[in-house]
């Protein structure tokens, strides 16, 4: 039986989608069966971070509404254990049948070890659609005060929904900037009120990989962001991995 992870952020620009793609490919790299679903309706771009921009993919509505079987989800050409469903472009989040979406995820749990949902930024209907059926949560934030405040708000909303397994990923961390403004990762954790599960350093390779249409783990295998994604993937599987700013 697989697990359903929602990858969330309080605001746009945190790099949530890149984190979702990096973790998904890191899990697939280790032989885990992974289904990645872009849930950012109308602003979908998970395919770019996965290196699948030129690949034809079904939307999750194509499967949830019974038009196609889950087995026809796009298979990643470089990570055969990874499959992908994109977001629909012709349906507002408020008009998506939440029960059908939840049923799709329950079906996916029977076939995959991990189901990763790339949620839209913010706390509107798309957030509620994703958060309701998810079991575990990765809340992606930057180290700036606005991003931290928004992450804290999302954490509070998840708590009100009865969700407990919520972990923080601090992304795009600039060590020099943190030193200049005298902020530590502990300060970020304290402000957000959530346990930490990963630090991802600012890394130009993330943008370069997407620009060249390649997944980061194939474009720059040993870059700082790739190393961080692999460590988070290890923690998801229950392995102990130290959290450092390296």
Helix/strand class? alpha/beta
Q: Tell me the series of helices and strands, N- to C-terminal.
A: EHEHHEEHEHEHEHHEHHH
Oligomeric assembly: single chain
Our measurement of the CA-to-CA distance between the termini, rounded to an integer number of angstroms, reads 34 Å
**Strand order of the biggest β-sheet:** 3-4-2-5-1-6-7-8
Mean pLDDT: 91
| Number of continuous helical runs | 11
**CATH topology label:** Rossmann fold
Supply the CATH superfamily name: P-loop containing nucleotide triphosphate hydrolases
CA radius of gyration is 17 Å
CATH architecture: 3-Layer(aba) Sandwich
Number of E-state strands:
8
Q: What low-confidence regions span 5 or more consecutive residues with pLDDT below 50? A: none
Biggest beta sheet summary: 8 strands, mixed
What is the domain tally? Answer: 1
CATH class, please?
Alpha Beta
Query: Which word captures the global form?
Result: globular
**Proportion of residues in β-strands:** 15-25%
